[in-house]
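README: folding subset

This subset contains proteins for which both the sequence and a predicted structure token string are available. Records are stored as plain text. Below is the entry for NADPH-dependent FMN reductase (213 residues), shown exactly as it appears on disk.
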Amino acid sequence: MTGTTAVKRIVVISSGLSTPSSTRQLADRLAADAASILRERGVEVEVQTFELRDLAHDITNNLLLGFAPPKLEAALEAVASADGLIAVSPIFTTSYAGLFKSFIDVIDTQALTDLPVLLGATGGTPRHSLAIDYAMRPLFTYLHAIPVTTGVYAATSDWGDGGDGVRSLPDRIFRGAKEFADLVERTDRSGLVNDPFALDRSGGHLIGGLAGE
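--- output ---
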């Protein structure tokens, strides 16, 4: 068992655009279950949540100029030093939100290596539930993160009782959170070195992408 002296840091990113947001609600419930499971095992946990809509202007400026203002830099450093990431996006036109992808684009390419990730998504219809597996999961796998097997999608109707024999949303949240907690508990990323000043793109990107992508 992980010793109680090792604090596990979980970072939550939510890219919901409205207030209140079902995306934020799902993110909070995933984080609460994961933290509860770890604490029951004697693991100390710190949870830090970032609403990407609050960082939207900073993210855009970073994409254009290659410079992260203090609030965005704090979020990027939190992700790079986390023991686990919970990433939740609304689904628009069958894929994750543009704001969600833009944030991922400004993360250092090595920051997610070996990072356990619990994926969540929200939408108005159950028809978009596969977006986690065909859109979000490949994105994080490409960045060498470790997405847990269970992704949690919540349609508008899922906030009810989950009848008709379908596994209820609380059950799916708990299952995903447990898989995530299992990985976070045994993952050690202390040896990873992430250089926040490293560039993986050509210098032209810093002046609006005039050179190659």
